[in-house]
Amino acid sequence: MSLTGKIIGFPSLEIERVVRKNGIWVWAKPSCRPNCLYCKSTDLRIKATYQRTVKHTRQGNQIMTMYLRVPKYHCRQCGRYFRYRFSGILPRYRASEAFKLEVFEAHDGGVTQRKLARSHGIGTATIERWYQRQISLRYSEIRTRNCPLVLGIDEHFFSRKSGFATTFVDLKNHRVFDVKLGRSEASLRSYLRSLKGRDRVRVVVMDLSDPYRAIPR
């Protein structure tokens, strides 16, 4: 197992050559042969090999570009073909997940798309696409969370147009769980019914205003 591969975040890679000038160029190949993706057999043969170019995280002010030797395997057991899959690099993408996360966090922190396009050598449309994808992933994670055991509920004025909003707080872990527009049981009914693990709630902390009396039930 390559120590350099561990350092750059890919322990399954065997580094063959590194060139550093205006950027960092790394040539690498898989350090071991995998099992068949379909039947888990180890009886494989390499049918062909092709090169894959992938952008990885920046080191200082230089972008790391990896040139990966990708074997195409034929399984003698089940007769199927497959290409080697690198952990942290999705199929058909020309950038690692670490690189895309780096771009997302920079843009989310206030760096403009134009500046990121210059510093990372990618288009503004690509930045927007990666940003929207990461937002969707994070929203999916939020939607699948379990409802807190100790739930705090309170209302606050949101805007003249939207009126009031209701904040749900995980009081056990001291963090906001969600914020939804509306404050009546009727306006929140569909949201409350969709909460995953709502039967886990043991304590509800809230004021005794009329709109909230039906929510614990």
Q: What do these coordinates show?
A:
The protein has 217 residues and is an alpha+beta fold. The protein has three domains: 91 residues, no CATH class; 50 residues; 63 residues, no CATH class. Helices cover 26% and strands 35% of the residues. The chain contains five helices and nine strands; from the N terminus they run H-E-E-E-E-E-H-H-H-E-E-E-H-E. The strands form two sheets. Strands 1, 2, 3, 4 and 5 form a five-stranded mixed β-sheet that branches. Helix 2 packs across helix 4. The longest helix has 20 residues. It is elongated.
Summarize the structure.
By secondary structure, the protein is α+β, with helices and mostly antiparallel strands. The chain is 26% helix and 35% strand.
